[in-house]
């Protein structure tokens, strides 16, 4: 059956069959698929006063035939269609295909759902699909005046814009697109096509009493564009699911905020590849409810946010962020990933950049964070916070990478665990860095292969009762204005250097606390400090061994200060200790020190070994040079 409307005026058209529509004006609605399956081809210019609907069953799921129906509309061959409100797939499966350089203009667009049976709580089979292909366009506009139909004698109905579209018992307005209100909403934009929304895009909304748990999809491919001039946001059922896929120089541009998946158990997947880009001129909020999942993948693509980014936050949330092949992620303000109790975050950056104002990953009790980088550039101008919370854990591993931060807070909280490994990588901080702060924290810091840590302010590692830190530096640099390793009762420090350079311009403090212990072993290394405080506290234990290494202090050095301290100082193979000021070792009641110097140098302005009641000093020299410019005090 064919309808050639020509120039005549038609009233409402309800079509439940296969047909073709050419040019014409409709002073009511064009409804395709009310009671039966239908397919309509539109090849001309058609203007519709009220609704342009595909597979709606009059908007009531209870009136659909058993098993639902399937209806489709195809706008092709440079056709042009205008309608006040367009609905695709309410209560049944609807497809709207726009192809061949065609264009749809509408004040409001619903893909999967409009006025569901709100009071009956009836589950329906809503499934709407909008496909824009081959240089075609869809414009969701504020009014008919923004379209070529502005002079058309059939004027769009303004009254239906705010009727029957219950979202949180409110309304959407002109220029809005709703995706997945009551079912699966799918938007495909392909082959240099465009979807332009004047106001907001509302994703996975549901209605009161019937949250939408069905996934929606947005696919933007092959140099296509999706522009949103308002917000992209979730509705009443913010726990809905959204998959956003972009490929081959495609773009999503949102003038205001992106906020989708903001309720419990939301599931948001974002994938962009081959020079695609996502831009939000406001905030970027994704999957922030409890037990939510956020999965972001960027492959040779960009994500740019002009505001605050919040991804995968909420208790029990899981966040995966994969950035690779020259991708760039920029958040001009703060970026927060996986914030909440028991969150999990897996961040991988490969030959790509992550740039933020402040970056927080896994902030909350029992948070678990894994960050890996290969050829990565990470910049956090203000603060860099990872795994902050009781029993939190952080595993950071970077190879051939650069990390530039303001201040850093890693593995802070009772029993927090931190593993930080750098391989041919550099971490630079313009402020302070705190790692493993809290009682019974465990910290492993490994610097390999020309790696470096340079902190302009204070660097403090493993501060707390029974806190422990293991530092290994191999052909690497560890530098800070002040460096403190292991502070607190029973704190434990193990530090091994091979070809290492350790620099602390102000103070160098190791294992300070009662029953604290320090094991320092350096080979072919240089340690340049201001003043040094090692193994201070009642019953503290210190083992310091230098092999072909040099420790130079511009200020004072105190080792093994406290009652019953035990200190072992071993200098081998052309090693040297040079202290410009006082050097004091094993000061306290029953304190003991064992000094062994073999083909090495021990020098200080004043040198004191063993001071206090029952102090014990053992000193052995073999081809040793001992120098004390002022006083030399032993036992």
TrEMBL record:
It comes from Salmonella enterica. This is Autotransporter outer membrane beta-barrel domain-containing protein. It comes from the Bacteria.
